[in-house]
Amino acid sequence: MELTPRLQDIINIIKNRGSVNIKDLALEIKVTPKTAKGYARELQRLGLVEIDQDGNIKLKEQKENENDKILKTLENHENEILSLKKEIEMLKEELQKLKKRGKA
Length: 104
Hints:
Helix content is 71%, strand content 10%. By secondary structure, it is mainly alpha-helical. The chain folds into 2 domains: 1-61, Orthogonal Bundle (Arc Repressor Mutant, subunit A); 63-104.
């Protein structure tokens, strides 16, 4: 299952804190509480989190194997992002070299 970067960020926030209130989540990710609640409901629909009546979100107790898959997916995405950032820096350096040659 592929999660959007925003949903991955929310999972990481919940994982780090243990649980988070929807209003606090909204402040942290700089969205309205309504938008944060929509993200939480999407994660709930996917079976990844539980939301209580007070708006607190926590990771759903899952089989360890499923949690491992989610964590591996998050790790893979983070590695891909890091790799792309490095590639962008290399391309920027090449572009600078080409610009310098053009001026000479």
